[in-house]
Amino acid sequence: MPAKKTTKTHSPKTSTKSRRAKSPSTTSQSVVESSVTNQSKVQAPAFSLPTLRLNPKVLTSVLILIGVGLLTYKLGPWLVPAVVDKTPITRFELYKKLDQAYGAQVLDDMINEKVLKLAIAKSGIKVEQAKVDEEIKKIEAQFESMGGLDDALSSRGITRADLISQVNTQLAVEELLKDKIEPTEEEIKSYFDQNKTTIFKDKKLDDVKADIQASLRQNKLREAFMTWFEDVKKEVSVKNFSLVEK
First-to-last CA distance in the chain? Predict the structure, then answer.
């Protein structure tokens, strides 16, 4: 009998490379390389950082708060002049009390001073510096025996510049009203006769005439000034605002 041919079946051989490719295990290097490769093929989406925009009102408020904080730090003693058992007394509270006690009078004095200076400036009267200096010397002589003029001014809270300004204003008013303040001979004699048994007892008119003239002059100046100044204030617009509620 003829011998049967044996057919050998050859199973396909799998290469080492293919087996490695099919292996589920992957090295870290291959992951990095794959990631780099993928990144090179995919474009990153375009985007921009959001712009920070501040509300102008908010920015202004912040700057104001910073400014107030700095002022409070720098001007603390000025804003709070006293602290009683950790309770502050503010400068506003102090000013409110001062305003209630003296504010109206002080403000009126300041208004009158301003009105007076404006009226003098409007009149065109200018006082010579020599007259001011002469008057200052007279005042200095009066205080020479009392420690000097500067000490007297300091005790009253007045500076020499303030005094010079007051003297200048006084001389300007006298010049403005000079036709209404000079006493007559009859007025001088009448004043002497009314007081010759008291103030001028055992004195002659000629001995006290200069004193009587100066006294009457001051009285007439005061009366003339009050009349003139009331008329001046009627022509000036004055708005008086109270800063603190009474």
Answer: 145
Structural domain boundaries enclosing 229: 181-239
- The pair of three-digit structure tokens given for residue 67, joined into one six-digit string: 């400014």
Check pLDDT > 90 for residue 116.
yes
Q: In whole angstroms, what is the distance from residue 187 CA to residue 213 CA?
A: 9
Give the E-state strand segments of 19-144 in sequence order: 82-84, 87-89
Q: Where are the alpha helices (DSSP H) in 23-55?
A: 28-41
Write down which residue in 44, 74, 89 finishes a domain: 89
- The reply to whether 142 falls in a domain is no
Type of residue numbered 219:
N
**This model's pTM is above 0.85:** no
What is the number of domains present in the chain?
Answer: 2
What's residue 191's pLDDT? 94
CB atoms within 10 A of CB 118: 12
Give the Cα separation of 160 and 168 in Å (integer). 12
The rounded percent of the chain whose pLDDT value lies above 90 is 41
CA–CA distance, 179 with 93 (Å, rounded to integer):
49
Q: Which helix (H) or strand (E) holds 168?
A: helix 160-176
In a domain, 8, yes or no: no
